[in-house]
Each structure stands twice: as structure tokens, then as C-alpha cells.
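To whoever picks this up:

The nightly regression suite flagged EcsC family protein as changed. Nothing in the input moved, so I suspect the structure step. Input below, exactly as stored in the fixture:
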Amino acid sequence: MSGAALEPASVTSEGLEGIEAELVSQQADAEKYTIVFLSKVIRLRGVKIDREQFLSQELRKLGLSDAQIEQAIASTPVQACVGLIDLDVLARKSIDFETRKSAGMSFATGLPGGFAMLATVPADVTQYYVHAFRISQKLAFLYGWRDLLDDLDEVDDETVGKFAVFLGVMMGVAGASASLGSFAQQVARPALQKQITKQALAKNAWYPVMKRTLALIGVKVTKDSFAKTVTKAVPLVGGVISGGMTLVALKSQARRLHEHLRELPPPGVDAADYGAALAAADVEAPSPVRVTAQNAVEGAQSAAAAAAGRATGAARSLLQRGRERLG
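Regenerated output under the current build:
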């Protein structure tokens, strides 16, 4: 064997270009796959939320008059003088309802015999996005957005792009939160008229975020399908794991979207006035993300205190036994 040192392999510019081209090709494939997948999900029965029916049902729970509810539907709940704290409560209840429902379905598909074996994997993954879409619409309607889905028979790339921005925020895609405001101004919230003047997707400021999200979902759907197939290998445990994963992931992501949507002033509302109202609401009832973080800190502190207490008790017990032996 020669003692000469091995020369590191050199990478040519052509090689780098080939790798870059392959990565671009893979990302494009993931985007195309996601567009097809999400287009099918959006068309599923039960995905579309009727804005008028939803707002009427939810605002009635607050004891609002018919006239106030009609005003909220015609404009926005905030313009109908619905308090932000009340909207936050309705938003959290909507998130809880959808995540429980999604986790229950995920548990059912994690049990053999509940559904056809070949259908469980796509169904388990698909239902997650069904409820993510439903949550997105409910939160958007509460905080002043208009219908995001008109004709389900005409779902196009732009429709998928709209929801990709919401999913991007939920999944923590870089730049998604910042682009949500731009998205609101360009696409969703100026649509107090029913039809939106369409423009090329590539001209929108949120287009790069949309592309990153689509590629990420394409990879994620594939991985999740495999992971959930593995969890179903053990019948009851598989169902518990599958449902638990769905509940934790969807709930935390929905809360992230909630936090960002509530910070955007609804159309027709002065931004400064809305900011002041938001600050006052956070003082009176902290936002859900802050509450969650505070609860986590308090929980950790309690756990640490309990552990310290147990350690102290054990030390005292050992010391007492030592004294008894010496005595």
C-alpha cells in the first residue's frame, strides 16, 4: 500500500452546476406534486367553510344581536364592535375543535380494519391538511378576511398558492410571517368585492415563500406517509401515536397562524387604533402563544421544584438511616 497521501477529489464548475440543476429539478418536482395533492385536498367535501354561516354561528354564541351579526358578515367582526378578546376565545375554540377532530380521525386510521389498508396512509396524511385548511379559513374569517374559496370546481394554482402562504406560516417557513401582510394587501383582504383582479403569481411579493412552502410540503407529505405507516405496525400503539402526533403538531402550528393573523388590522380599521386595542387585549388576556410559553415555563419550574423536593427528601431519608445505624 502506497504511503502517498490521497489527493482530495476536485469539484469542477460543471459538477457544481449539475448538482444545482438536480436540486432545482427536485424542488420543481416537489412543488408540482404538492400543487396536485393540495388541489385534491381543497376539493374534498367539508374543506370549504361557509363564511356567512360560520360567523353567524360563532358570533351568536357571544349573544350578539342579528343586526350586529349582519354587520360583521357585511364588513368584519371588528367593525361590528366585536372585542378582540371575544374573537381570541372563538379562535382558540375553533382550533381546539378542529385539532381534536383531526387527532380522532388520525387515531382511527391508525387502527387496522378501521379503513382499507391501502387507503389509511394517504387518508391519515390528507386529513391533517383538511383540518389545516379548515382552521385557516375559520381564523381568517374571525379576523376580517373574506372567502378564500369560491368555486371548488375551479381550483387553480392561485387558489393553492393562497393556502400555501397560510401553511407556510403554520410550518414556520422563513419569511412566511412577513409575507402574510403583503399577501393580505394584494390578494385576500382587499376583496370586499367578490372577484379579485388576478395577476401573475410570480409578480406577488409572497411568491418565493409560496414556492418554498410547496416544496417543503411535497417532501413532508412523503416522509409523513412513511412515518405514519411505521406507527401503524403496532395496532393500538400505532393509533395512539398517530393521533397524538397530529394533535400536538396541528395545534402548535394553528396557534402560530392565530398569533400572526390577529396582529393584522382588518380592512377599514385604522392600524394605530387596532394596535392599541390589541395591546389592551393582550394586557387583559395574554395572546395564546404567550400563554402557552408562560405555561411551559411555569410547568418546567414546577417540575424542577418537585424534583428538588424529591432529592431533598431522599437525602434526608438516607441521612436518617445512617444515623440509626450509627446509633
